[in-house]
TrEMBL record:
It catalyses: RNA(n+1) + phosphate = RNA(n) + a ribonucleoside 5'-diphosphate. Belongs to the polyribonucleotide nucleotidyltransferase family. One of its GO terms (cellular component) is cytosol. It is found in: Cytoplasm. This is Polyribonucleotide nucleotidyltransferase. The keyword Ribonucleoprotein does not apply. Keywords: Cytoplasm, Magnesium, Metal-binding, Nucleotidyltransferase, RNA-binding, Transferase. Its EC number is 2.7.7.8. GO terms for biological process: mRNA catabolic process; RNA processing. Residues 623-691 form the S1 motif domain.
Length: 694
């Protein structure tokens, strides 16, 4: 039965159609916000997937080019691989929703969001987030919702709720907050160095707005929601836990996991696993779930040690950071490099500089093709965790980590006018044991400074973890979580920033939300930690950006010319500009506004190209002294080229002070000569003199 529901949200009408389309999905919400239209569906398999020890949830955000009146580029003329924006949006939807499904649920669940129309005033990403929550809530899929999401931008210090695409792109804040009825469950933010107190204010303003959306969703569920289906639980039998504890007492498990060396811990767990496999050799049912049982036993052990005893597996204090190390210039000949090590997490970052023409072009759900001048890429090879998986290119995790570090550093980059380069930094994970994305932020910052990029402030990042008890006030915050504390803990709260404020946040949790005390405590803890990292580790390695770019980096000089003169510099069919490039070996880019960038490794050749361009765009005036090359000799005089496409004629009478019978007696093709502009002759032509320039 088709029903439509509406509410006013941030000055616009949000409409949800249920029962109108996609009726065979477990749940479907046809979403309209302004003229933005998204079809969100939730579908689940009938039975659990065999052989998996995790919840198989997949989230898709499908960008259709017809939604903005475009035909996809390329030969195929249809949408292909998901864009980076699609991947990042899907991750933001996944992170708050995954913890709200039952922990023992193993049925495949697919949340699909089809973007069908885009209104620039109403971002489709937000509509998809709300659509996924609504379609899941009204479906028969077990889900402990409702949940809701709100986005906040900021212009001139004022918050903007659910901002337009223009405000989102150009404002000082890009904040997404997801909430349940009681607590915040996800935070994602990019910020232009916003103070911690201001960020907390924005988070809880969004949380309050989420409560109005949740009330709206509850009304929809009350009218059209399906009864949740029963499912086959994949919980570990309590009898198995009891048997394991008989063979491996809690004290023995504590000794096994209580180490700061990942390999040692893994060897200890392997020994325990082999012992248990031998003990349960005759029980195939228990052997099938033994791996998950051991995992949960470790988890309970670690959580109890932290929460009750305040003991961390590696023996650190709750607010203590692992040993730090940093160095720059570890890779020769590249434009900039740095390595940052925190415990068993190690990232090497390499910076490459190039002309602005090499900025990334992005053709997405926008009116125009965008360019991205700063690109951060993150790689996570299997050897970094001692595994042997082949490389298949970046997955969603790698794209997400790269985007987070990119977002962290964007606010401190110089403008194109200050530093006319495209910039790419690549983080290679050498070793991983927790929070490589934050190590990537630190190494990227140092790599940029080593390359001579004049960033405005140093940026560092750190992650804060959490272990909770039975009540809201029974919890422990952990600074700088390692892999084990991330796997077995309840939160991964990553924050990057300068000494002045926050540049990025990414918060993941495995529980049903955080109290305000936890959020404020985590933000305060990460501030202390990132200042410590900068002062004790990063600054001793490199305190400020180098004054000049690396010797192997291209040098770029820029000049502004009259846009009306662009055609003169380019020439017919590019003849003039190509001649300059061929002679000097530089690369030349010209914007529509007349900004000319000349890029090359040889400074003398850059100066020569700039001199040519300045000559081309300068109108000849009487008295001007110019240098040029003889390119043509006639009976009546010679033609002098001052720059490609820019010539002048010297009459035979103006070559020397004495009488000249033959031009060839005084000039030869290729001669370099100085000329003085005499202004216009009787015919209105510009003439030059060699004898008056001597």
């Amino acid at each position: 039965m088709y029903k439509s529901f509406s509410m006013e949200l941030a000055g616009r009408t949000l409409t949800v159609d249920v029962g109108r389309v996609a009726k065979q999905a477990n749940g479907a919400a046809f979403m309209h916000y302004g003229d933005t239209t998204v079809l969100s569906t939730a579908t689940a398999s009938d039975k659990p997937r065999e052989g998996v020890d995790f919840f198989p949830l997949s989230v898709e955000f499908e960008e259709k080019m017809y939604s903005v009146g475009k035909i996809p580029g390329g030969f195929n003329k249809r949408e292909g691989k998901a864009s980076e924006n699609s991947v990042l949006t899907a991750r933001v939807i996944d992170r708050p929703m995954r913890p709200l499904f039952p922990k023992d649920y193993r049925n495949d669940v697919s949340l699909n969001n089809l973007v069908m129309s885009v209104d620039p005033e109403c971002r489709p990403e937000l509509v998809a987030m709300l659509g996924s929550a609504i379609s899941t809530c009204i479906s028969d899929i077990p889900f402990d919702g409702p949940c809701a999401m709100t986005q906040v931008g900021m212009v001139d210090g004022e918050f903007v709720v659910n901002p337009s695409q223009a405000v989102w792109d150009n404002g000082d804040l890009q904040l997404t907050v997801a909430s349940t009825k009681q607590k915040v469950i996800m935070i994602e933010a990019g910020a232009n160095i916003i103070p911690e107190a201001k960020m907390i204010e924005a988070i809880y303003m969004a949380h309050d707005i989420n409560q109005t959306i949740i009330e709206f969703i509850e009304k929809i569920v009350a009218e059209v929601g399906k009864e949740k289906h029963t499912y086959e639980s994949c919980a570990i039998p309590e009898e198995l836990f009891a048997a394991i504890k008989e063979i491996v007492p809690p004290a023995e498990m504590e000794v096994a996991v209580f180490t700061d060396d990942k390999q040692t811990r893994e060897a200890n767990i392997k020994e325990i696993t082999e012992k248990l496999e031998e003990a349960f050799a005759d029980n195939e049912e228990w052997l099938a779930v033994l791996g998950e049982a051991i995992y949960q036993y470790q988890k309970k052990t670690v959580r109890k040690m932290i929460l009750k005893d305040h003991k961390r597996p590696d023996g650190r204090a709750l607010d203590q950071i692992r040993p730090l190390a940093a160095e720059v210039d570890i890779v020769p000949r590249v434009h900039g490099s740095a390595m940052f090590t925190r415990g068993q997490t190690q990232i090497c970052n390499v910076c490459t500089l190039a002309p602005l023409s090499e900025a990334q072009k992005i053709d997405g759900l926008d009116e125009n093709v965008k360019t991205k001048r700063y690109m951060h890429h993150y790689n996570f090879p299997s050897y970094s965790v001692g595994e042997t998986k082949p490389s298949r290119g970046p997955g969603r995790r790698e794209i997400g980590h790269g985007a987070l570090a990119e977002k962290a550093l964007m606010p401190v980059l110089p403008s194109e006018e200050e530093f006319p380069y495209a910039i790419r930094t690549v983080s290679e994970t050498f070793e991983s044991n927790g929070s490589t994305s934050m190590a990537s932020t630190c190494s990227s910052c140092m790599s940029l400074m080593a390359a001579g990029v004049p960033i405005k402030s140093m940026v560092a990042g750190i992650s804060c973890g959490l272990v909770t008890g039975e009540t809201d006030d029974d919890y422990v915050l952990l600074t700088d979580i390692q892999g084990l504390e991330d796997f077995f803990g309840d939160m991964d709260f990553k924050v990057t920033g300068t000494t002045e404020g926050i540049t990025a946040i990414q918060m993941d949790i495995k529980i049903h939300g955080l109290t305000r005390d936890i959020v404020e405590g985590a933000i305060a803890r990460t501030r202390e930690a990132r200042l410590f990292i900068m002062d004790t580790c990063m600054k001793p390695a490199i305190a400020e950006p180098r004054k000049e770019v690396n010797a192997y980096a291209p040098k770029i000089e820029t000049i502004q010319i009259n846009p009306d003169k662009i055609g003169d510099v380019v020439g017919k069919s590019g003849k003039v500009i190509n001649a300059i490039i061929e002679e000097t070996g530089v690369k030349i880019d010209i914007s529509d506004e007349g900004m000319v960038s000349v890029c090359g490794v040889d400074k003398d050749m850059i100066d020569k190209a700039l001199k040519y361009i300045k000559t081309i765009v300068t109108d000849f005036e009487e008295g001007m002294i110019l240098e040029g090359t003889v390119v043509s000799i006639k009976e009546f005089g010679a033609f002098i080229e001052f720059a490609p496409g820019k010539e002048g004629m010297v009459h035979i009478s103006k070559i020397a002070k004495e009488r000249v019978e033959h031009v060839e007696d005084y000039l030869t093709l290729g001669d370099k000569v100085k000329c003085k502009c005499l202004g216009k002759d009787k015919m209105g032509r510009i003439s030059f003199s060699i004898k008056d320039a001597q």
